Amino acid sequence: MKEAESVFASLSSILRRHTDGMSIKVDEPGNLYIERLASAPGAKPAFFGAVQTKKSYVSYHLMPIYEHPALLSGLSERLRGRMQGKSCFNFVAPDPVLFAELDALTARCAAGLE
What we know:
The protein is of the alpha+beta class. The protein has a single domain, classed as Aspartate Aminotransferase, domain 1 (Alpha-Beta Complex). The chain is built from four helices and six strands; from the N terminus they run αββββααββα. The protein has helices at residues 2-17, 63-67, 77-80, 96-111, and strands at residues 23-28, 31-36, 46-53, 58-62, 83-84, 88-91. It has a six-stranded antiparallel β-sheet. A hairpin with a 4-residue loop joins strand 3 (46-53) and strand 4. The termini are far apart.
C-alpha cells in the first residue's frame, strides 16, 4: 500500500497547487475533495476535483473537463488511457511524465474558472 500513498501524495499536491480561492471540503488520508466557491449569493459550492484512494488504485477527479471537454484538447494518448469515464484518471503507480501533464491540465481547468 506504500505505492498508493505515494501516488495519493503526488496527486494531492498537484490538485492543491491549483486551488487558490477554492474550499477544501474533505482533507483526510486517502481522500481530498475541493469545491469552487459559490458563484452567486444563495448558490451552492460546485465540485472542482478530488483525489481518492480506492482498493487497487488512486483516482484523480477533475470536474471542469466534464463540463468543458475542449480542455482535453491535446491530451496525450497515455493520459487518455488512464481515464475512467469523462472526468477521472486512475493510477496504480507514480508516473512523473503523466503527473506533469495532469498538472498542466489542472492549471488550465483552474484558469478557466477565473
